[in-house]
Specification:
This protein has 412 residues and is an alpha/beta fold. It is built from 11 helices and 19 strands. Strands 1, 2, 8, 9, 10, 11 and 19 form a 7-stranded mixed beta sheet that branches. Strands 6-5-14-15-16-13-17 form a 7-stranded mixed beta sheet. A 3-stranded antiparallel beta sheet has the order 3-7-4.
Length: 412
């Protein structure tokens, strides 16, 4: 069977549905190809409340007015931004419904090959469907097979083991959550590789509890995180009555940036859009989908499929954003080597930054120059041993990222 369209989108995760819907809303004929477009997703997604308007109101499952951070002691820091937990089922239903309403057609199959010529692209699926399109957007996630990348991959992952637990009682007040709780040292070892507790209470007897290794290379194994979670909950005196769901999370954090000269346009985790400092990506995909769709529509209106792909890549990875990512990747690679004690000191310096800088760091809205200045303040606020570790990293394996960040017109 042959299907013709303007834009073929590979993948029906949040990034795929967002960009497919935005393209269709501009009048483009869009086909989304994925093996499971009608099945809901599994990750538990959260957003900062200033990003909550990116999703429909009914997608929000809970709001937390007081996200807390605990470093080494029982004195909590309260973050100024509220946080929201999304219902994954309702997020999928809402995004899928919007895609269908905008006219996106779905092909339920896996892409098996992809080729380009002067008139467009040819996508073949394992079910024998051929899709002829002007432009192809690859939103097939971090395991994408269709994008060429440049630079060095880091085997860095965020891993987390989470449970939706029924508990006799939990320590969180109404509206309170744990964004990061670093109080417990596994086995009492302050030099251990760090992990923290991310906890979102659902009601008085149910709480989502996730032991998270922010970023490690190689990844912290899920069995280690599962054992750490059990040890931590015992130390907190938190009695689990039943476990209703388990989340095994692994987020690739060190994917190289895709080459922006290729005909296949990348979007979402496939295009390395996962934030190297946080592992977040959902808000960025929702925010940028209309820009990328606009670039494709304009490119097709004035030029060839190759023109449209170039314009789309400029919207996904404009040069300043690529420089920003090199700086983040430099910081991430350094963080991979920190033990628990040093990680606590790093976050002490981070949470001492003013709220505006923290937000710009977390949602990647700083310019490269602003990010460099924030990172310099973190450096000067860190203890001498940490500074020395960062200098060694900057002269060693992190040199390439710094050079990339500073090239193409400098960090500005
Ligand atoms: C457990 C977990 C929790 C997370 N929590 C958050 C969070 O709270 N906030 C946040 O911002 N980010 C979070 N992330 C990070 C990121 O936002 C998610 O990974 C997000 O799902 C990435 O979206 P995506 O659409 O790019 O890729 P994916 O969600 O991975 O979707 C990829 C799609 O491509 C399809 N596909 C793959 N191969 C093919 C093929 N050959 N042919 C056709 N289709 C194909 C898949 O079936 C799927 O539909 C989390 C990630 C995980 C794993």
């Amino acid at each position: 069977m042959m299907v013709r369209c303007d834009v073929a989108v590979i993948g029906s995760g949040p990034a795929g549905l967002a960009v497919a819907t935005s393209c269709a809303a501009l009048g483009l004929d869009v086909v989304c190809i994925a093996p499971d477009p009608w099945r809901s997703w599994t990750p538990n997604y959260g957003l900062w409340s200033h990003q909550a308007s990116l999703v429909d109101e009914d997608v929000i499952a809970a709001r937390y007015a007081t996200p807390r951070v605990w470093l080494g002691t029982d004195d909590a820091l309260t973050l100024p931004d509220a946080y929201v937990k999304l219902s994954t089922f309702r997020l999928h239903r809402s995004m899928h419904g919007r895609a269908e309403a905008a006219g996106v057609r779905f092909v339920e199959s896996e892409v098996s090959s992809l080729a380009h010529d002067e008139v467009g692209s040819l996508v073949r699926t394992s079910a024998g469907v051929t899709v002829r399109s002007a432009v192809v957007v690859d939103a097939s996630g971090a395991g994408s097979r269709w994008l060429e990348r440049s630079g060095d991959a880091l085997d860095a992952h965020q891993t987390a083991y989470g449970v939706l637990a029924e508990v006799a009682e939990h320590p969180y007040a109404s509206g309170e959550m744990s964004f990061m709780d670093f109080r417990h040292a596994p086995g009492g070892d302050e030099r251990a590789a760090p992990s923290f507790l991310y906890a979102l209470p659902v009601d008085g007897n149910h709480v989502f509890l996730e032991e998270t290794a922010l970023v490690r290379a190689p990844a912290m194994p899920l069995e280690v995180l599962e054992a750490r979670l059990a040890e931590r909950l015992a130390a907190m005196g938190l009695r689990v009555v039943a476990i209703h769901e388990v989340e095994r999370c692994s987020i690739a954090m060190g994917l190289e940036l895709p080459s922006t000269a290729q005909r296949t346009v990348g979007f979402g985790a496939a295009a390395s859009m996962v934030h190297p400092a946080t592992g977040y990506q959902l808000a960025a995909a929702l925010e940028r989908a209309p820009e990328v769709a606009g670039a494709i529509a304009r490119g097709l209106a004035i030029g060839t499929p190759a023109t449209a792909a170039r314009a789309a890549w400029d919207a996904v990875w404009p040069a300043p954003r690529a420089r920003l990512w090199s700086l983040y990747r430099f910081g991430m690679a350094a963080l991979c080597g920190f033990d628990l004690a040093r990680t606590r000191l790093f976050f002490e310096a981070f949470f001492a930054l003013d709220a505006k800088d923290r937000r710009r760091y977390l949602d990647a809205s700083a310019s490269p120059a602003e990010l460099a200045s924030i990172m310099a303040r973190l450096f000067w606020g860190a203890p001498l041993t940490t500074q020395w570790q960062l200098i060694r990293h900057g002269m060693g394996s992190g040199r390439a990222e710094l050079w990339r960040a500073a090239s193409l017109g400098g960090i500005a």
